Amino acid sequence: MKKLFSILAFTLLLLISYLIIDNYVLKNKINSNKEKTLTPLPCDLNSKDCVYKFKNKEILISLTPKPIKSLQNIHLKIKNLGTYENLKLKIYGLNMFMGEINPKIYRINQTDYEAQFTLSACSMHIMRFRAELINNNKPIDFYFDFDLRR
Fold first, then answer.
1. 63 pLDDT exceeds 60?
2. Count of domains observed in the chain
3. pTM for this entry
4. What is the CATH number of the domain that holds 119?
5. Best label site of 34, 119, 124, 139, fewest CB within 10 Å?
6. By C-alpha distance, which of 74, 75, 100 is closest to 89?
7. Using CA atoms, how far apart are residues 102 and 83, in angstroms rounded to an integer?
8. Looking at the structure, do residues 70 and 1 belong to the same domain, yes or no?
9. Mean pLDDT of 33-60
10. Is the pLDDT of residue 65 over 80?
């Protein structure tokens, strides 16, 4: 009788352990792997050039070629930004950390700049990037976001 009770207690313990693991551990792991829903961007740089307001000016941002693809040389043009002596560009992922891209940015004239960079391939269906402009190692509070679709 004690042996039968021990077997039943052990079986019940295994069943409870399985239910706890199934409910909490496995479901959390599956949910964490799902992509977070991204809100649509106000302007999609994959289909057109975009204009952003910054310091009472309209800044035109252009990425070519369109649509943006990974492992492809991407040309960035920034028009009407203003004069900055030590402007830098920092590009990083918002919905997955993939490191930073710090391409060299060139001044074309007093207000316009350009740069070239390549984005790494990503396993996510939509990878959202942020391009942030920095002058003298301080953000100038101007950035723009764009999506890379698989």
1. yes
2. 2
3. 0.74
4. 2.60.40.10
5. 34
6. 100
7. 20
8. no
9. 88
10. yes
pLDDT for res 123: 84
Q: Lowest-pLDDT range, 33-42, 62-71, 132-141?
A: 33-42
Asked, for residue 127, whether it belongs to a domain, the answer is: yes
Sign of the Cα torsion 117, 129, 56, 88 reads negative
State both tokens at 137. 């190692």
* Among candidate residues 39, 48, 64, the one with its CA nearest the CA of residue 126: 39
Return the structure tokens found at 19. Answer: 């239910």
How far does the chain reach from its first CA to its final CA, in angstroms? 62
- Residues 106 and 138 placed together within one structural domain of the fold: yes
Q: CA dihedral defined by 30, 34, 37, 43, rounded to 10 degrees?
A: 170
CB neighbourhood size of 46 (10 A): 15
Domain that holds residue 18: 1-31
Q: pLDDT, tens digit, for every residue of 68-94?
A: 999 999 999 999 999 999 999 999 999
Tell me the DSSP string of 42-108: SS-TTTS-EEEEETTEEEEEEEESSS--TTSEEEEEEES----SSEEEEEEESSS---EE---EEE-
Taking the alpha carbons of 114, 135, 58, 65 in that order, is the dihedral positive or negative?
positive
Q: Is the pLDDT of residue 5 over 50?
A: yes
Q: Give the pLDDT confidence score for residue 34 in this predicted structure.
A: 45
